[in-house]
Amino acid sequence: MQGLAVKSTLRTFEVLEFFREQRRPLRLNEIYKALNYPQSSTTNLLKSMVMTGYLNYNRKTRMYLPTMRVSSLGSWLHSVIHNDGDLRKLVDTVQARTDETVGVVAQNDLFIQYIMLKTPTHDFKMPPSEGDMRLLIDSSAGLTILSRLRDSAIEKFYRFTKYHYPRLEYFASYADLMKEIRWVRYIGHCYMPMLPTPEVASVAIPLEEEMFGIPLALGVGGLQPRIAARKEELLAIMHEAVAEFHETSRQNSNGALAAE
């Protein structure tokens, strides 16, 4: 019964994500064929989502569409993240100065998650999407975040990751991972060329700011030759912008205290 509940929950989110990709009303057969679900269980799932108010069903057209109740679920969190003017300004500033993809990422259990992204207008890019996730030990931002933890905590993340993802090729041993982590601690940033996507590279630095106690990092990424050729320049831009960001945050905090 628990397994069925987990599968049903997963499929609910997959249906909603499919609507996000398609951005239009969809028929039953479009959904179960695209997601490779059994027709009968898809019918029951969509009926349940209609009954709970998360999908609208038009009997005339036989089409489904998410309702505003879906968007309201996370609307408060969106405002917390995206109405943070200082953080948004940081991303905008770094993107304008680098002309590459810039993102703020947050730790999410064994993963990092892109919570704020801005991409350049040129075609030399392969950006992720906001909300996408990658393993901590498989990204520059993830290693940057891990580098600020104790070795014992990193060892637990490594063990859990290898348990759940045994075929992971990177950092075959804990010793390999810690060698990279120590180097990140020493130089203060992480540069990851061509892993896991050969065409892409990224460089990341930690942010002192946290979101509800969740560690954050700032990253700049793009096509590998572009990032490799400009790595030191990109790092200088990032550090300068982060220093400005922290100074603005300090001034805002002092202003708030003075107003009290």
UniProtKB/TrEMBL annotation:
SUPFAM superfamilies xrefs: GAF domain-like, Winged helix' DNA-binding domain
Keyword Repeat listed? The answer is no
Q: Start and end of every HTH iclR-type domain?
A: 6-68
Keywords (alphabetical) are: Transcription, Transcription regulation
Which domain of life does the UniProt lineage start with? Bacteria
Matching PROSITE patterns: HTH_ICLR
Q: Does the keyword NAD belong to this entry?
A: no
Q: Which Gene3D superfamilies match?
A: 3.30.450.40, Winged helix-like DNA-binding domain superfamily/Winged helix DNA-binding domain
- Return the Pfam families for the record: HTH_IclR
Q: Which PANTHER family match?
A: HELIX-TURN-HELIX TRANSCRIPTIONAL REGULATOR, ICLR FAMILY (PTHR30136), HTH-TYPE TRANSCRIPTIONAL REGULATOR RV1719 (PTHR30136:SF35)
The name of this protein is Helix-turn-helix domain-containing protein
